[in-house]
Amino acid sequence: MAVNKKYHKRIEEGLKEIFKTETQKGNFDGLITIVEEPMVRHQIIQLAKLCEEIPVSVTLKNTANGVFIEFW
User: Counting Cβ atoms within 10 Å, is residue 18 exposed (0-12), middle (13-18) or buried (19+)?
Assistant: First the structure.
């Protein structure tokens, strides 16, 4: 499932506000960011609220570089 273009700006702004990270283009119009610092409780809550607002799928993966978050 591709992220509808109308949600790109909201996702990019939300991730920058929550994690202070830049967003990259992923597969099939998806958006990706990597959070290198440990996530704290309020960031997880804000991420959950962002996910409620935007009707797309989200993947979180723990990697050697940090937490990989992909909206797709």
Answer: buried
Helix (H/G/I), strand (E/B), else coil: 29: helix
Integer Cα distance of 27 and 47 in angstroms: 21
- The pTM for the full model equals 0.82
Q: Are 33 and 21 in contact (CB under 8 A)?
A: yes
Tens digit of each residue's pLDDT (9 = 90 or more) over 6-44 = 888 899 999 999 999 988 887 777 888 999 988 899 999
CA–CA dist 14, 62 (Å, integer):
20
Cβ atoms of 24 and 31 within 8 Å: the answer is yes
